[in-house]
Amino acid sequence: MTRKPRVSRLVVDVLAALRALRNPLGIEGQRRFGIVTRYEQLGISVRELRAIGRPHRRDHELALALWASRVSDAMVLATLIDDPRKVSPPQMDRWARMCDNWGLTDALGYGLFDRTIHAELKAHEWSRSRSEFVKRCGFAMMAGMAVHRTELADDVFLQFLEAIGREATDERHFVRKSVNWALRQIGKRSPLLLHAAIAEAERMATLESASARWVARDALRDLTPRMQHAGAAP
Questions:
Q1: Closest to 125 in 3D by CA, of 93, 79, 157, 169
Q2: What is the torsion angle, in degrees rounded to the nearest 10, for the CA atoms of residue 167, residue 170, residue 176 and residue 180?
Q3: 40 — phi, psi (to 5°)?
Q4: Does residue 104 contact residue 128 with C-beta atoms inside 8 Å?
Q5: Percentage of the residues of the chain whose pLDDT score is greater than 70
Q6: Residue 230: phi, psi to the nearest 5?
Q7: Residue 8: what pLDDT?
């Protein structure tokens, strides 16, 4: 796809601004927290990226170009400025497959894709993925939808709980952390979902899988006090 002249100029300017902020200590800190990538890494904080992106909010064409730059910080910036209304399923598939660390994955799933009309379908689809980060993105979307999509019915999240219960046995670190994240956020959404999430966690706690038991224990620590505080049936 040929870039429009405006977008081409903007990409050059934005990438120059990002590279001027390159922070070796930031890179070291990100790597210390497991954000290691094959892309160019500049170590820029999300706060700084938000400030740079503010004038470009909902600029879909610029977001596409920044993602294509293969500069990790520019790719995160793309998730901050893209227009969820213009994000297509092929774009979602392409971007998710390019993720190689949890930071970029969560920026996509929890910051952009969860707000699209395709989120529910893709969350279910990706929950079965063999790719560690595509699968994580699916559960990050579930967590994001639980927080950001107030218009959705509880039934959407009850179906997500089925996927969470099914995939909680995945032993991969970044997957099980995202499964746990989705379970906890869903449980915080409503009284009905709180009871359902706790019931699912209690079921998972009886499984032979160490991963499922860890997900269950951590979720129960977070959600059980909320049940006690609510003190009422759904």
A1: 93
A2: 30
A3: -60, 130
A4: no
A5: 96
A6: -65, -45
A7: 86
Q: Quote helix, strand, coil % in the chain, to nearest 5.
A: 75, 0, 25
Enumerate the H helices of 33-172 as residue ranges: 46-53, 60-68, 72-81, 89-98, 102-111, 119-126, 132-148, 154-167
Asked if the model's pLDDT at residue 215 lies above 60, the reply is: yes
CB-based burial of residue 233 (10 Å sphere; 0-12 exposed, 13-18 middle, 19+ buried)?
exposed
Separation of alpha carbons 220 and 202, rounded Å: 8
User: What is the mean predicted confidence (pLDDT) over 105-130?
Assistant: 98
* Percent of the chain whose pLDDT exceeds 90: 92
Domains recognised in the chain with CATH numbers: 1-82 (no CATH), 101-234 (1.25.10.10)
What are the structure tokens assigned to 191, written together?
């009284």
- Smallest Cα–Cα separation from 106: which of 62, 46, 65, 47? 46
Give the pLDDT confidence of 74-99 residue by residue, as tens digits.
999 999 999 999 999 999 999 999 99
Closest CA to 109 of 72, 146, 74, 73: 146
Quote the pTM value: 0.93
